[in-house]
């Protein structure tokens, strides 16, 4: 069978090569025709200005458009002199002669009106070409132009004075009255021939280039044909193997797919407990389950061990559709007992493949999401988030970033959701590292409690004061940890700040549950409130929430944690928790702010509870302040 396939492949290749040679031969044989056409266009273009000027000169001697130009030139010497005076300016090195000719309608002879440059011919003298060898040819050409009204030209290859004669029909009322013969120099002919020569070679190069491209395409088609003849399926599971992926990697545009990495949870335990033979059986069934739940244009590969790569051909990248496909596979795996063995599978998904550098990058992101799925308990589907794909910075790296002041802020609006107005913009710190803008978590947590952390906070305050100076109508929320409110250097900066900035700053207290020394903390908070700052308690409802602390802290706003808010449309319990926190906050004189409002449905639920303020992607993602102002202009 392999021998037959090999012979058939060679036959197809020879047939394709024969066709390509024939096509190339046809293209090559057409070069003289193309060259002739190009030469005609060059000559036509080169003479256009001269012809237009001559036509204008002839027309200008007429008393009226209806006057017969031929009759006027024959009977009026003054008209001939006037025309000659107008055309004598063309006597240059490039143009050697201009003859005004006409066809005698009675005797069918070509006769002179004038030789513009030389004179010497009386009106009506029979036309005598300069080259006796081409008498009949040139006279016939003039006669044809006179009859047809179509311009043409002759090349004089053996004449070292005249290179080209261009014959132009002057038409009046649809009748050719005159034929203007313009003799261009031999040098002009050579210029045109040189241009045509270079164009000819350019055309030849294009044909060769097309031929090479055609052969490359032919090679690619033939290569794909050969790939189909080979066994690129995994011998154990029957799906495509890693070798096939490598072979077609360059042909796969990741933008057309959703990339999924999946594997069997705790598969090593299966092999260790039941042996490799039964483990192989589990793998085969897992691959079958994946394959039967995919569509015709989807691809699945055994990527390595128990790990499989799935490429879902879903150009619209609908997250819900992708989730449903994978959840169907996940449930099938969970429900399927293979030879007494019950397993589960985890899935990592990279949805936004248009942002991937290449397929390898997309696979890495899907693999990162798979790792997250494992971390979160397995038997689940996890979608890749950009925050998952951040560099691993060391403490010295973070300290260096702070020392170099490579810190900026992006801003997200906190909205009055009832009036659709911005209350203030929360400043969200970002680190600049090797050309990238990185969120500070989880890096900053590594230096908490150190002087570097305090320096980081001071940098953020300093950065935002500059922004406030630049944008006079802006109000900004600055995040400060509970430890920052016990740091005298930070407190001094805040206390010394001019009132014009103080009233435009909202201080957001993070990590309130970590407060160990409450009395000095509360004293400092009260002092800042007295100074004129607006205080906001952040992430209320997260971790060990202390309602007593909330009651005693004299803050103006509290932010209800996003985990609660984003689930209020999915769970009545979360909705009730949110509603009770909001109600309690208002009863003790504090305005609740709902974080993580991601869509219209969540927003309506928030409004339904009477909450006035909110924040989240629904209103805008964090952006540089300059960009926000440009958008709002």
Q: Layout of helices and strands, plus pairs?
A:
Blueprint: H1 2-29, H2 31-60, H3 69-75, H4 77-87, E1 95-104, E2 109-115, H5 135-148, E3 152-155, E4 162-172, E5 175-185, H6 186-229, H7 242-248, E6 258-264, H8 267-274, H9 276-292, E7 299-304, E8 307-312, H10 319-335, E9 337-338, E10 341-342, E11 345-350, H11 359-375, E12 381-383, H12 395-403, E13 407-416, E14 421-433, E15 436-438, H13 451-470, E16 476-481, H14 488-496, H15 499-502, E17 505-510, H16 518-531, E18 534-540, H17 547-552, E19 557-560, H18 562-565, H19 572-587, E20 591-594, H20 600-608, E21 613-615, H21 625-632
Parallel strand pairs: 11-12, 14-16, 16-17, 17-18, 18-19, 19-20, 20-21
Antiparallel strand pairs: 1-2, 1-5, 3-4, 4-5, 6-8, 6-11, 7-8, 9-10, 13-14, 13-21, 14-15
Helix pairs in contact: 1-6, 2-6, 3-4, 8-9
């Amino acid at each position: 069978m392999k021998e037959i396939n090999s012979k058939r492949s060679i036959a197809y290749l020879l047939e394709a090569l024969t066709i390509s040679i024939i096509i190339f031969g046809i293209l090559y044989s057409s070069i003289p025709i193309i060259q002739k056409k190009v030469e005609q266009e060059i000559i036509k273009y080169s003479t256009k200005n001269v012809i237009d000027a001559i036509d204008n000169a002839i027309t200008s001697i007429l008393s009226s458009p209806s006057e017969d130009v031929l009759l006027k030139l024959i009977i009026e010497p003054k008209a001939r002199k006037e025309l000659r005076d107008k055309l004598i300016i063309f006597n240059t090195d490039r143009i050697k002669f201009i003859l005004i000719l006409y066809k005698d309608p009675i005797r069918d002879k070509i006769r002179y009106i004038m030789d513009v440059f030389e004179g010497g011919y009386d009106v009506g003298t029979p036309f005598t070409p300069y080259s006796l060898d081409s008498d009949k040819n040139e006279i016939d050409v003039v006669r044809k132009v006179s009859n047809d009204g179509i311009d043409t030209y002759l090349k004089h290859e053996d004449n070292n004075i005249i290179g080209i004669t261009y014959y132009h029909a002057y038409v009046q009322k649809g009748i050719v009255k005159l034929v203007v013969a313009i003799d261009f120099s031999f040098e002009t002919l050579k210029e045109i021939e040189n241009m045509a020569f270079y164009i000819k070679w350019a055309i030849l190069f294009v044909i060769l280039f097309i031929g090479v491209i055609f052969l490359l395409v032919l090679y690619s088609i033939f290569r794909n044909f050969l790939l189909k003849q080979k066994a690129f399926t995994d011998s154990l599971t029957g799906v495509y193997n890693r070798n096939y992926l490598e072979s077609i990697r360059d042909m796969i545009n990741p933008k057309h797919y959703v990339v999924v990495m999946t594997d069997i949870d705790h598969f090593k335990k299966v092999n260790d407990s039941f042996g490799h033979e039964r483990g192989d059986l589990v793998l085969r069934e897992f691959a079958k389950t994946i394959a039967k739940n995919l569509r015709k244009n989807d691809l699945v590969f055994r990527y390595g061990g128990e790990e499989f790569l799935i490429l879902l051909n879903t150009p619209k990248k609908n997250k819900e559709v992708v989730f449903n496909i994978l959840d169907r596979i996940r449930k099938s795996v969970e429900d399927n007992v293979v030879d007494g063995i019950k397993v589960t599978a985890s899935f990592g998904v990279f949805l936004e493949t248009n942002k991937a550098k290449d397929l390898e990058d997309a696979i890495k992101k899907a693999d990162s999401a798979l790792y997250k799925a494992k971390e979160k308990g397995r038997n689940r589907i996890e979608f890749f988030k950009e925050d998952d794909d951040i560099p691993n910075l060391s403490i010295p790296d973070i300290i260096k970033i702070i020392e170099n002041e490579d810190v900026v802020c992006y801003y997200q609006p906190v909205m009055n959701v009832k009036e659709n107005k911005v209350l203030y913009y929360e400043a969200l710190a970002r680190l600049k590292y090797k050309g990238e803008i990185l969120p500070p978590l989880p890096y900053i947590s590594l230096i908490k409690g150190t002087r570097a952390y305090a320096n980081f906070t001071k940098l953020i305050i300093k950065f935002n004061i500059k922004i406030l100076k630049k944008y006079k109508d802006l109000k900004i929320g600055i995040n400060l940890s509970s430890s920052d409110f016990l740091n005298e250097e930070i407190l001094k900066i805040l206390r010394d700040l001019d009132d014009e900035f103080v009233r435009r700053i909202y201080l957001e207290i993070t990590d309130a549950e970590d407060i160990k020394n409450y009395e000095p903390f509360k004293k400092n908070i009260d002092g800042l409130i007295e100074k004129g700052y607006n205080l906001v308690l952040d992430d209320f409802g997260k971790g060990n929430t202390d309602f007593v602390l909330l009651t005693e802290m004299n803050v103006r706003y509290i932010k209800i944690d996003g985990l609660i808010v984003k689930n209020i449309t999915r769970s009545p319990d979360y909705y009730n928790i949110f509603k009770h926190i909001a109600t309690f906050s208002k009863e003790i004189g504090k305005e609740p702010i709902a974080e993580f409002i991601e869509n219209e449905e969540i927003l309506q639920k928030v409004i339904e509870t009477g909450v006035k303020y909110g924040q989240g992607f629904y209103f805008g993602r964090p952006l540089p302040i300059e960009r926000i102002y440009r958008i709002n202009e």
